[in-house]
Description:
Blueprint: H1 4-30, H2 38-42, H3 44-62, H4 69-96, H5 104-108, H6 115-136, H7 139-164, E1 175-176, E2 179-180, H8 182-200, H9 204-227, H10 235-257, H11 265-273, H12 275-291, H13 300-308, H14 310-328, H15 335-347
Antiparallel strand pairs: 1-2
Amino acid sequence: MKNLTSLGTTNYLKGIAIISVLINHYLNRYIEGNQSGIANGIIAIFYILSGFGIFYSYERRFNEKKYNFRIITKFYSDRILRIYPFYIIVLLIDDFLLGESYSIWNYLGVVSPYLFVNLILQCYLVSFIVYYLLKKLELVKFLLVIILTFILINVFGYMVEFYADISFNFFGIIIYRGLYLGHIFLFCIGMSIPFIIVKTEKSNFMIKWRAQLLIVFSCLFLIFLYITRIFLNNVFDIINAFIFSLSTILMIYLFLYRDFKKPLLKSFYILGTYSYPIYLFHLLYYTTLESLGIIQNNSIVSIFLTIILLPILSGFCILIQNLLELILNKGKTKLFTLQLNSLKEYKSVKSKNTDISIK
Length: 359
């Protein structure tokens, strides 16, 4: 199944999100003040968009075929080959050049200094089960199952935590943004968004009010992104965390619902395409510039120089991702050329493909 409009929008949104992460991490490290917790919330966008993309990945792989072990294992092996090489390279650099000391659990991604990695691995682990349920159940039933399961897990987890003083947040990898398995919840809903879009594409209400709703939920996302950056483990913070997750889901759904004019399309599209290696290597980029004396604390000049030199980071990430793709595809794929061709083709697409069969 090919959906170029969705491909263009998801990569565009990933590009905006990864730039926001880079900005927040720079502010945290080099500018006075407390801006912590913003980047952690922004990656919620990646969990939803990853779920959205994984649904299409399963659709392409099965394509009316019966579920079989070979296709499933091929999916997971492909995920491993796209997650671990960059991740291990970054940890090795941190370990041997920057003096960090990582354990085998860090290298496996079970407990990771890069939060997104171990949480997205959990999402991938449950992805086939979610896809199977999504295809077998009606959309409303699927959403009820996911939402009720998520609520019950959180009610149980926090009741035990409040009354028995026991936390299930082992090594900090179970709770995301104040909610037990919040990342998996976002991912699951992201996988269902293609179905939701098809179900609502002819809704007069959505067609008429989509722009206004997008503004409202984008504002709510930004407000609760800031509110939930500090989590104090009380009832009000848990409610705020639910509102943050809901507003993020609805914002992304509304962005994907219809195509829209995208400023700086090519730049953000490319950044979004290579957002994973950029996420992993950007702190090394900052550290390198700092060691060269280019970045200094509370310096406007340093900010401008960091921005001007940013193409070095993006160019490096494009290079290594293409090298990995060439190795994985035995030299048969010129990924960057394909991505640019997809971008050109996407620009010419006027309407969204909606060839998903809905129960």
